[in-house]
C-alpha cells in the first residue's frame, strides 16, 4: 500500500542515510502519535536502502518490566561476533556497560549500517544509556540511527524526555514529525470502498491506523481492532484516570475543563495521567480525544447507568448559566442522554438551525432527526416545520431518501392545515429533489402541481420559484427554448415585482441555458449568472446553476469548458459542505475527462462517486455509465452490468436528461460488433427523444446508426454530428479536434481516406482503445489500405497482458509496495509519468488496486 503524504519524510531519511554511510553518521528521531505510521515509514526506508547497507532493526516492547537492551537483543544476529559476545555478557552481568558500548560502536564503525530502534518510549534504562553513548560518537561512524517514539505518551517526567534533552544540542540529530493524513489522502485511501470519506476523516482525524481499520470493517460502528487497541492503552490507567476518560467520553470529544471539574472535582492529576496515556490531550481550557472513533470505543464500555448520570449532571451544569450558540449541540446531546424530552425539544431544533446557518448540513440533519424522535405530541405546525428543516438538511447532506420522505410528510401536513402557500413551496422543493433522485417523471408532475396550487393564491415569491423549477426541468428535459423562456419570463416578472434579485438571476440563467442547448450561444451569460449567485452567497441556488452549467459543457463535449465549470463547482461545494452537489459535479467531471481521452482519470473520478454511500442516483448513474464506457473502449469485460445498473438507478427519462445513457449503450454494442443491437438501442433512444429537440442527444444516435451500416432518420444534430451525417468526415474530425475530443475525432475519421484511417488508428492506439483498433484494422483491410501498422512491439505482444517493457518494470515495483514517487525515483521519471504507467498497468491487468496488480506476478498466492 502507498505511504500517502510520507514522501517528504522518506526523502529526508534516504538523504540522511546516503550522507551517514559515507560519514559522518547521523541520528534521525521519527515521532508521532499512536497509529501514525512510524513503523511503516522505517520499514519502507529499509527496503529503499542500497544493498551494501546493513540493516539492523530492533524494537522495545510495552512490558511491565522492559527487556534489558531489548532492541539490541533483536538485532544481535546481524552483528559481528565481538558485539554479540559483549551483548551476551552484558545480559549475564559479566560485561561492563562501557565495554558493550565500545564493542557496538566498533561494530558499527566497520560496516555502513542503518540501525533502527523502534518505540524507544518503552525502552529500559540500559538501552537509553547506550543511545546516549552512541549518539555522541556518531560523527565518526558510517551509520544512520533511526529512533521512533510516540510523542503523545511521554510527559515531563518520562525517562525519554531526559534522553531527548541530552540529544538536543547535537547538530547531527534530526527530528521528523509524522502528521495525520489530510482529507485528500483519506479520500484516496477510501477510493473503491463504499464509505463516506469525509466521515472516515472525521472519525479518524487522519490517523492511518484508524483509517485502515474503518476501511477494513466499514459496517462496524467501532472496528474490533480499534476497540482492542483502546482497551489495551487504558488497561494500565489508575481507577481515577479511567473515570476521567469515561466521563470525557460521555461529555463529547471536546470538553471545557470547568464542566469536567463540575462533575469530577479536582480531576487535574487523573487528567494528566490520561494525557500521558496518549488517548486524550488538553489545549487551553479544554480536553479532547485525539480521534472521535477512540471516544466512541471508550463510550461503548461505559455502563448505561453511569452515562445517564453524567448526562444529567452535564445538562444541569450547562443550563445553570448563559447558553452560547456553540453550547446548543452538546446541550441537545446531553438532553437526549438524560432522557429529558422537553429539553431535547428546547435545544435540538435550535442546534439544528444554528448548524444549518453555519453550513453544517449533516449536523443539522442529525439534530432535526433527534427533535423529531420526541415530536409526536407537538402541534402539527411545529412538527411540519421540523420536517421541512430535516428534509432540507438531509437533501444537502446527500441523504436523499430521508429528505424526500420528510418533505412528503410535510406536504400532507400543510395540506391538512390548509396552508396552501407552504404546501406549494414544499411541493416545489420535493420536485427539485425528486429529479436528483432520478425520478424525473414524478419531479415534473410534482412541479406542475406546485404551480397549480400556488397559482390559485395571490402572486408570491413562492410562485416565482415554482416557475423557476419548471424552467429548470424544461432545460433538463430539452422541451425547447419557448417553454423554458415562458416560465423564465413569468418568474422574472414576479421577481421584479417582489424585488427578489435571486429570482431574476435564475430566470436569466435558465433562459440562456435553454438557448445554449439548442443554439449553442449563451455560455457567457450562464457563467455570469452562476458567478452572481455564488457572490450573493446563495449556496443552494448557486449549486443548481453550477451543476447545470457542468452538464451543458459535458453534453456539448466542450472539454475546456467542462473542466473549468466542474473545477469551480467542486471548489464551491467543498467550501459550503454541499455533498450531493459535490458528487454530481465529480460525475460530470468524469464525463469531461472521458471526452478528453483521459480514461484512467475519468474512471478514477467516476469510481469516487460510485464508491461514496451518499451519491445521488443521478450522479451515480452517470458515473457508472462512464465506468462502463471506459471498460467497453478498453475491451474489458463487465460492461453491460455497469450500464444496466446505471439504467436501473433512475427512470428512462433520466437517461435522456443526463445525456450519456443511450449513447453509451449504443457505442458499447458497436464496440462489441453487434450492429443489430446498435440499431435497436439507437432507434429506441431516438423514439424517446421524439417529443424533444436536442441536437446533442439525437445527433450521436443517428451517427451510430450510420456507422453500423444503417440509414439514419432525419433528426436534429449538432454541428460535428451533422457534418459526419452529410459525409464531411474531415470537417467533423476538425470540429472534434477543436473541442479537445480525440476519440470522437478518430471515430469521424473512420469514414475518411487512407491517411485518415491511419490517423484514426494512431489515435485509438494512443488511447489504448483495443476494440476500436481492431475495428479500424478491419476497415483498412477491407479498403485495401496498406501498409497496416502492426501495433505493439514483439515484447509487448509476448506479454500475456500486453504490457510494455516499462510497464513490466512498473509492475515489479508495485510488487515491492512502492508508491508512485518511489517508482519515479527508481525509473528516473517524474511521479506524474509513473502515475500514468501505474494506471495503464491496472487497466491492462483488469484490476482496481495496486495490491491486486502485484498479485498477477504470483497468481498461485492467495
From TrEMBL:
One of its GO terms (cellular component) is cytoplasm. It comes from Streptomyces seoulensis. Residues 796-861 form the HTH luxR-type domain. This is LuxR family transcriptional regulator. It comes from the Bacteria. GO terms for molecular function: adenylate cyclase activity; ATP binding; DNA binding. InterPro entries: AAA_16, P-loop_NTPase, Sig_transdc_resp-reg_C-effctor, Tscrpt_reg_LuxR_C, WH-like_DNA-bd_sf. GO terms for biological process: regulation of DNA-templated transcription. Keywords: ATP-binding, Nucleotide-binding. The keyword Nucleotide-binding applies. SMART domains: HTH_LUXR (SM00421). Coiled coil: none annotated.
Amino acid at each position: 500500500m502507498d505511504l500517502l503524504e510520507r514522501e517528504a519524510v522518506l526523502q529526508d531519511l534516504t538523504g540522511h542515510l546516503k550522507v551517514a554511510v559515507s560519514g559522518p553518521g547521523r541520528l534521525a528521531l521519527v515521532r508521532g502519535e499512536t497509529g501514525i505510521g512510524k513503523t511503516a515509514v522505517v520499514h519502507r526506508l529499509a527496503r529503499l536502502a542500497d544493498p551494501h547497507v546493513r540493516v539492523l532493526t530492533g524494537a522495545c516492547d510495552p512490558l511491565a518490566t522492559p527487556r534489558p537492551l531489548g532492541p539490541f537483543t533483536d538485532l544481535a544476529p546481524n552483528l559481528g561476533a565481538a558485539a554479540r559476545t559483549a551483548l551476551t555478557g552484558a545480559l549475564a552481568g559479566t560485561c561492563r556497560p562501557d565495554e558493550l558500548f565500545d564493542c557496538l560502536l566498533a561494530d558499527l564503525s566497520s560496516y555502513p549500517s542503518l540501525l533502527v530502534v523502534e518505540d524507544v518510549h518503552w525502552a529500559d534504562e540500559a538501552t537509553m544509556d547506550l543511545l546516549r553513548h552512541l549518539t555522541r560518537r556518531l560523527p565518526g561512524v558510517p551509520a544512520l540511527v533511526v529512533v521512533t517514539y510516540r510523542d503523545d505518551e511521554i510527559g515531563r517526567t518520562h525517562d525519554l524526555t531526559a534522553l531527548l534533552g541530552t540529544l538536543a544540542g547535537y547538530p547531527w540529530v534530526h527530528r521528523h514529525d509524522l502528521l495525520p493524513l489530510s482529507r485528500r489522502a483519506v479520500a484516496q485511501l477510501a477510493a473503491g470502498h463504499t464509505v463516506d470519506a469525509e466521515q472516515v476523516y472525521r472519525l479518524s482525524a487522519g490517523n492511518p491506523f484508524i483509517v485502515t481499520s474503518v476501511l477494513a470493517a466499514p459496517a462496524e460502528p467501532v472496528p474490533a481492532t480499534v476497540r482492542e487497541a483502546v482497551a489495551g492503552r487504558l488497561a494500565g490507567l489508575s481507577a481515577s484516570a479511567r473515570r476521567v476518560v469515561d466521563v470525557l467520553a460521555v461529555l463529547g470529544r471536546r470538553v471545557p475543563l470547568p464542566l469536567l471539574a463540575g462533575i469530577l472535582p479536582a480531576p487535574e492529576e487523573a487528567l494528566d495521567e490520561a494525557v500521558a496515556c496518549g488517548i486524550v490531550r488538553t489545549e487551553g481550557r479544554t480536553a479532547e480525544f485525539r480521534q472521535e472513533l477512540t471516544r466512541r470505543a471508550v463510550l461503548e464500555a461505559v455502563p448505561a447507568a453511569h452515562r445517564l448520570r453524567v448526562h444529567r449532571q452535564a445538562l444541569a451544569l450547562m443550563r445553570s448559566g448563559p447558553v452560547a450558540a456553540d453550547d446548543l449541540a452538546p446541550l441537545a446531546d446531553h438532553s437526549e442522554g438524560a432522557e429529558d424530552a422537553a429539553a431535547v425539544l428546547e435545544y435540538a431544533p435550535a442546534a439544528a438551525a444554528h448548524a444549518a446557518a453555519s453550513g453544517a448540513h449533516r449536523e443539522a440533519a442529525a439534530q432535526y432527526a433527534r427533535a423529531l424522535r420526541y415530536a409526536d405530541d407537538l402541534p402539527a405546525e411545529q412538527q411540519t416545520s421540523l420536517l421541512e428543516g430535516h428534509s432540507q438538511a438531509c437533501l444537502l447532506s446527500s441523504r436523499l431518501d430521508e429528505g424526500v420522505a420528510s418533505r412528503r410528510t410535510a406536504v400532507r401536513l400543510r395540506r391538512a392545515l390548509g396552508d396552501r402557500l407552504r404546501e406549494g413551496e414544499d411541493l416545489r422543493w420535493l420536485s427539485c429533489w425528486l429529479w436528483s433522485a432520478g425520478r424525473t417523471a414524478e419531479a415534473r408532475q410534482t412541479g406542475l402541481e406546485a404551480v397549480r396550487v400556488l397559482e390559485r393564491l395571490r402572486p408570491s415569491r413562492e410562485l416565482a420559484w415554482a416557475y423557476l423549477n419548471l424552467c429548470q426541468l424544461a432545460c433538463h428535459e430539452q422541451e425547447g427554448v419557448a417553454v423554458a423562456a415562458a416560465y423564465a419570463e413569468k418568474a422574472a416578472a414576479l421577481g421584479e415585482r417582489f424585488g427578489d434579485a435571486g429570482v431574476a438571476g435564475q430566470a436569466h440563467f435558465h433562459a440562456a441555458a435553454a438557448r445554449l442547448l439548442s443554439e449553442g450561444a449563451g455560455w457567457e451569460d450562464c457563467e455570469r449568472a452562476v458567478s452572481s449567485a455564488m457572490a450573493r452567497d446563495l449556496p443552494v441556488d448557486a449549486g443548481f446553476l453550477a451543476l447545470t452549467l457542468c452538464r451543458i459543457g459535458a453534453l456539448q463535449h466542450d472539454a475546456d469548458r467542462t473542466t473549468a465549470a466542474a473545477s469551480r463547482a467542486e471548489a464551491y461545494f467543498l467550501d459550503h459542505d454541499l455533498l450531493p452537489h459535490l458528487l454530481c459535479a465529480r460525475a460530470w467531471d468524469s464525463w469531461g475527462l472521458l471526452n478528453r481521452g483521459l480514461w484512467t482519470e475519468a474512471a478514477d473520478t467516476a469510481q469516487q462517486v460510485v464508491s461514496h454511500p451518499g451519491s445521488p442516483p443521478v450522479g451515480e448513474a452517470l458515473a457508472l455509465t462512464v465506468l462502463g464506457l471506459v471498460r467497453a473502449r478498453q475491451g474489458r469485460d463487465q460492461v453491460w452490468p455497469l450500464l444496466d445498473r446505471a439504467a436501473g438507478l433512475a427512470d428512462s427519462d433520466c437517461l435522456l436528461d443526463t445525456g450519456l445513457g443511450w449513447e453509451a449503450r449504443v457505442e458499447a454494442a458497436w464496440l462489441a460488433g453487434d450492429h443489430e443491437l446498435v440499431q435497436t438501442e439507437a432507434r429506441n433512444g431516438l423514439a424517446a427523444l421524439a417529443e424533444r429537440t436536442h441536437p446533442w442527444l439525437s445527433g450521436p444516435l443517428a451517427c451510430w446508426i450510420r456507422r453500423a451500416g444503417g440509414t439514419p432518420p432525419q433528426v436534429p444534430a449538432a454541428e460535428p454530428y451533422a457534418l459526419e451525417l452529410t459525409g464531411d468526415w474531415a470537417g467533423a474530425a476538425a470540429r472534434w479536434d477543436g473541442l479537445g475530443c480525440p476519440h470522437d475525432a478518430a471515430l469521424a475519421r473512420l469514414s475518411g481516406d487512407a491517411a485518415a484511417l491511419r490517423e484514426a488508428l494512431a489515435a485509438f492506439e494512443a488511447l489504448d482503445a483495443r476494440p476500436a483498433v481492431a475495428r479500424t484494422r478491419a476497415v483498412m483491410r477491407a479498403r485495401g489500405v496498406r501498409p497496416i501498422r502492426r501495433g505493439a512491439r514483439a515484447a509487448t505482444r509476448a506479454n500475456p497482458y500486453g504490457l510494455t517493457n516499462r510497464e513490466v518494470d512498473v509492475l515489479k515495483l508495485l510488487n515491492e509496495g512502492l508508491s508512485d514517487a518511489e517508482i519515479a525515483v527508481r525509473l528516473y521519471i517524474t511521479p506524474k509519468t509513473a502515475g500514468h504507467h501505474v494506471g495503464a498497468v491496472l487497466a491492462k491487468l483488469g484490476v482496481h488496486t495496486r495490491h491486486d496488480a502485484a498479485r498477477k506476478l504470483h497468481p498461485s498466492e492467495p
